[in-house]
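Dear support,

We are seeing what looks like truncated structure output for some complexes. This example has two components. We would appreciate it if you could run it in full and send us the complete token output so we can diff it against ours.
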Amino acid sequence: MDAVDAARLYQGYGMKRFTSLEFGDSEGADRRQDRGEQIRDEAFFYERAVTCWLGGDYELALRNYSRALEKDSSFFEAWSGQILMLLELGEYPEAIVWADKALELFPENPELFAAKAIAYIRDARFDKAMAFSDNSVSKENITSRVWLARAEVLMKRKSRIAENCVSKAMSIAGNSADVIGLEAGRLLRRSGKYSAALEYLNSSIRAFPKSALAWYELGCCQDSVGFFEAQVSLKESLNLRPKWELAESRLKSCQGKGPLKRIFNRIFCS
Amino acid sequence: MRCGRCQFENMPGQSRCLKCGSTLVQKADSVDVNPPRMARWKKPLRCTFRWFRAFHVTPSYSVNISIPPWLSQFSREGLFGILLSIIPGLAHLLQGRFREIRWYVLGWLVSLVLALFLYGGFWGLCFFGFAIGLHAWIAIHSALIKQVTGFGHRAFAFVLVSLGMLVVYRNLGGLIFRNLAGGYSNITVPYYRIETGDYLLAGRSRLRNKPLTRGVLVLASLEGTGHGGFWPWSQRRRDMGIAQVVGLPGEKLETRGGAFWINDEQLDAEKYPLPGWLRRIKMSVTIPKSSYFISADYNVAAHGRALNKLDVTNVCLVGYDSFEAKAFMRWMPLMRRGFIRDME
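Here is the complete output from our reference environment:
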């Protein structure tokens, strides 16, 4: 991910103070170039964490979020990022514990409640997930992530209004539309709504052309609906992050798929 | 003092932001910023439990099952609690305290599955004993344990219930697997990869009113067979055991040169091995029309004397009624488990 992508991401996360320091500001960029080396502050580690996340390396992203917090423990985005990485790594009880810890520092934060709702829904504890999702949407200053979490919970319940929540998340995303679009695409793909997911993922690719994660998600989605382009997307993902086991195995299964299976997927899964 | 989260300018000395409630004063080393991590071995376990939860397989304790009070009261009586616990955990379920014994039920289930899987061997018997013990404990835990005090009384109740459970298991097992029988092999047949002492499964329906062919292995009542069995030092006479049908009704059977001869034709020793005790006896017999000649490695020591030529007609020539089932599977040892192919 280049600096432009990172800057967009920073804006997306509402990190105005870091935007003014690091990106989107030519004066700041010039100052950094003059120094020759970037200062290893929380913004630096946060940027690296986001880059790792977009590259699909959740473990490294988590480590960088931790290092960002070592610099500034009141840095909310890093706490949130840590919880999201734990969710990506499938460590749901740990994510809940960590969200509780973050709630001690940021009480009544709707994003943290939403993260807990996601952890519970992915851990197949549906009632608790719904309760936390209800709690998160009842708070003030609801962010896009809260609506995405709501959408995930409702999708598990096969609710018809789930997609409305995704639309709602996109409508309030503002500068973070690209990141939220990628998250929405991933969510829709996981829920089997491939056509809608493709739309979001295609725009994510335009926003983050060097993100292995975005290419991988697009490839998986295309593979699920039987598109031949899936192999190209997955290969692109592997170019950006060589030897990525997840992408390699998906590409292998994609290559082994026969034409009948593709036609079947095209008819019934799209 | 500016809030790092919302940039709100707070009064100095405040610990939390007035606007968003975030913590304001944080020492860098006072907060642990490294999240807890999952041990790698937990991953498959969690996936399994998650899968069960997703399909609502795990009992939901928050759901109130409406049980009539008389039934709940009934299950709290010691004897009735035991009777209900023939299905492990049923009495507890009716009393609304299944959670107390859920791990015992799981242990019982695992032990039972392992016992069935290893049936016929030492560990199979151990697991059966363990399953019965757990079952008995669940049964007395349902109600009796509160009514009987003192270690001695409880131990006695446990033993008594265990014996009762043993009878239940034996009869219930016979009922469920009524078409299935099993026995220890009394013969080594290289062609079938069977050795003396192996435990074979036999099907009763495979034998019913069907003519026998040469070479099949049958579960038959054998006179004086002491081989095999659970205890290695066991010398007791066994009634039922696995033997091989060698001669069919009306045929002339001879033993010479370390092999069977049928109507003056030598049989393949790998398919029809001659038992050790028959090697010493040179004999020729015409099999009566209603009988079969079965070959088994009789334990002569258990018989108290060496078998002679006259004994052959007593122990080897048996009627169709002596056969109980036809063996179809090598069950134990595990290494040789597999189906037995019929001879061509």
